[in-house]
TrEMBL record:
Allows the formation of correctly charged Asn-tRNA(Asn) or Gln-tRNA(Gln) through the transamidation of misacylated Asp-tRNA(Asn) or Glu-tRNA(Gln) in organisms which lack either or both of asparaginyl-tRNA or glutaminyl-tRNA synthetases. The reaction takes place in the presence of glutamine and ATP through an activated phospho-Asp-tRNA(Asn) or phospho-Glu-tRNA(Gln). It comes from the Bacteria. One of its GO terms (molecular function) is ATP binding. This is Aspartyl/glutamyl-tRNA(Asn/Gln) amidotransferase subunit B. It comes from Endozoicomonas elysicola. It catalyses: L-aspartyl-tRNA(Asn) + L-glutamine + ATP + H2O = L-asparaginyl-tRNA(Asn) + L-glutamate + ADP + phosphate + 2 H(+); L-glutamyl-tRNA(Gln) + L-glutamine + ATP + H2O = L-glutaminyl-tRNA(Gln) + L-glutamate + ADP + phosphate + H(+). Its EC number is 6.3.5.-. Heterotrimer of A, B and C subunits.
Length: 482
């Protein structure tokens, strides 16, 4: 039997406010446990919450960024459940009247096709604290620093059909919220967490299968692996005569293990009711117009501009516009190098490789845009070859010099472009390889293209990589074919 996978996502996005959604406590990451939880976050008797205006503004910007309806009247409710890291015994959230209504996000897949993923809604809520299960000798510790941190929870329609689409959507969403500046996007710190709802059904069936929810996935890699594992589990279970149970599951990215956590709750289990301490939040037209005027260029618009203004391919523009920091780095590099294509190649190639190997983001790159732009200029004016440029880049990365020119001068890497010197070197190579010369000249025309590579390699070796490759090719061909 052929099976179809149906996936919907719930994404918790921590908003980049300086203070919490209902209190003045700091949201800074990395503080000592329980040093950033005030009386409001602890739910002490007599406290009253006050809505953080900036959290409202950020939620509205997200709605504008996905072409969603903005609900002008939205209400906070209490979602009641007991858990040790939720000291109030309820979470203040939104249910009936969320701030962001229906919208959409368009994704591009690896085959170049596009797909629209519908957003059902996004609502504001407060984060819970964090349970710590290590180093407590069989007990759990509670850190309430995160309690009250403002979130938007984004809920998709069940439009996703496989792990590739899920990851493409997650990456696009990450691009949107970081471009808007409403989230720092640091997934390792919990700034974005994905809950994945997965079900399977026989291909062609309209009725949805029973779904499970795998919670708190904080990397694209883990989300992809968790989806593959859950789809495989459900299909195998059904084909063996079993039944999928609606439940909440966990996935451990380090071990690759998945397990059941608890049976899945329904909305009525939480006994939602309007929060008596908070009035409805009204979004008026003047606020909407002000926030629209503050909107940055969104990833799709930036991609289109990169194609039009810089002549980039669709693929290159997609990669370079997806992340706000990368887009800024690219444009700043181009302003120095005056070569968009070479800048794109170096950012997606050598720079990206070095960043990944060292586990750092582009904002932490030791090679600045001025450094990389200056390096590319020296490739363009034939001061250095592409091969030598990689040596220069490595020196810049290690912080030994501050400019490409300094590296080239200090290490004597300037490219040899003197025709006489290159001719003399080529003559020596040809004289030392008489048999290969004879073989080349005896070969048919269509075979010579590959054979000339041997001589180019010998010349570059003789020059220690400093000879201009274009000139070497040209002079070699003249001498071999003449």
């Amino acid at each position: 039997m052929q099976w179809e996978t149906v996936i919907g996502l719930e994404i918790h996005v921590q908003l980049a406010t300086k203070t919490k959604i209902f209190s003045g406590a700091s949201t800074a990451f990395g503080a000592a446990p329980n040093t950033q939880a005030c009386a409001v976050d602890l739910g002490l008797p007599g406290i009253l919450p006050v809505v953080n205006e900036e959290a409202i503004n950020m939620a509205v910007k997200f709605g504008l960024g996905i072409d969603a309806e903005i609900n002008k009247v939205n209400v906070f409710e209490r979602k009641n459940y007991f858990y040790p890291d939720l000291p109030k015994g309820y979470q203040t959230t939104q249910l009936e009247k969320p701030i962001v209504g229906a919208g959409h996000v368009d994704i591009t897949l690896t085959d170049g096709s596009t797909k629209r993923i519908r957003i059902h809604h996004a609502h504001l809520e407060e984060d819970a604290g964090k349970s710590l299960h290590e180093d407590f000798h069989g007990m759990s510790g509670i850190d309430l620093n995160r309690a009250g941190t403002p979130l938007i929870e984004i809920v998709t329609e069940p439009d996703i059909r496989n792990a590739e689409e899920a990851v493409a959507f997650a990456k696009k969403l990450h691009s949107i919220v970081t471009t808007l500046g409403i989230c720092d996007g640091e997934m390792s710190q919990g700034s974005m967490r994905f809950d994945v709802n997965v079900s399977v059904r026989p291909k062609g069936q309209k009725e949805l299968g029973t779904r499970t929810e795998t919670k708190n996935l904080n990397s694209f890699k883990f989300m992809e692996a968790a989806i593959f594992k859950e789809v495989e589990r459900q299909i195998e279970l059904i084909e063996d005569g079993g039944t999928v149970i609606q439940e909440t599951r966990l996935y451990n990215g380090d071990t690759g293990e998945a397990r059941s956590m608890r049976s899945k709750e329904e909305a009525n289990d939480y006994r939602y009711f309007p929060c008596p301490d908070l009035l409805p939040v009204i979004i008026d037209d003047s606020r909407l117009e002000k926030l629209k005027a503050e909107m940055p260029e969104m990833p799709d618009a930036k991609k289109a501009r990169f194609i039009t203004d810089f002549g980039l391919s669709d693929y290159d523009a997609e990669i370079l516009s997806a992340d706000q920091a990368t887009a800024h780095y690219f444009e700043a590099t181009v302003s120095v190098s005056d070569d968009a294509k070479l800048s794109a190649n170096w950012i997606m190639g050598e720079l990206s490789k070095s960043l990944n190997q060292n586990g750092i983001s582009i904002t932490e790159s030791p090679v600045s845009t001025n450094m990389l732009g200056g390096l590319i200029k020296r490739i363009k004016d034939n001061t250095i070859s592409g091969k030598i440029a990689k040596e220069v880049f490595e020196v810049l990365w290690q912080g030994e010099c501050s400019t490409a020119d300094e590296v080239i001068e200090k290490k004597g890497l300037k490219q040899v472009t003197d025709t006489g010197a290159i001719e003399a070197m080529i003559d020596e190579v040809l004289a030392s390889n008489a048999q290969q010369v004879e073989n080349y000249r005896a070969a048919p025309e269509d075979k010579r293209g590959k054979m000339i590579g041997f001589f180019v390699g010998q010349c570059m070796k003789a020059s220690k990589g400093k000879a201009n490759p274009g000139m070497v090719n040209q002079i070699l061909k003249q001498k071999l074919d003449g």
